[in-house]
# Entry
Amino acid sequence: MLAVVWSLFVGALRWLVAHPWVPVALLLAAAAAGVVWAHRRRETARRDRVRERGLRYALPQIDALHHRQFEEAVRDLMRRDGCPGAVRVGGAGDNGADVKATDPFGRLWVIQCKHRRAGLAGSAVGTPDLHVLNGTGRPVHKGDVVVLVTNGRFTSNAVAFARSQELHLVDRQLLAQWAAGSTPLWRLLGVVPSPRRPASGS
# Structure
C-alpha cells in the first residue's frame, strides 16, 4: 500500500515538474477567488452599514412581525444606534435575554422583547416577565443596562417594579419614537449607568 502511495506521489511530482505552469495557474486562480470573496464581503458590510444607518420602522410594520422578527428588528435598531456587535440570542435557554449589545460607551445592554400581535390591544406585560429579566439581566448576563421592549403596554405594577429595580421599559409610544427616528435608545431613556469607558471623541 505504501509503495502504491509513494509511486503516485512521485508520479505527481514528475508531472508537475513537466508542467510547471499548473501550480502557478492554481495559485493565481486561488488569489483571484480570494480577491473576489474579500470584495463581496466588503460590499455586503457596506450595504449593511448603509441600511442600518437609515433603518426605520413604523408601528404597523412592527405589529405585523413574528416575535423572532421583532427580536431581529430590535437587534438591528441597536446596530443602527452604534452597536455593531448587537446579536439576537432569543430562544430556548436564553435566560431572559433576547438581544445583547455593547454601546459606544462600553455598556452591555441586555434586552428582553415582548411582541404583541394586537399591539396596544394585546395583553399588558406584567411583573412575572420582569421578575425573570431582573433575575438574569445582571447576575447571569452581567448587563449594565437591562431593558424590556414591547410594542404593547405595561401594567402599573410592572412600571413600579421596574422603577424599584432600575430596569428600563420601552412601551409602544417610546418604541414608535425610537424605531421611526434616529435618536439612540440611551438618549430616549434618559437615565442609564455611567459609561464603562469614555466615548470616542469625548
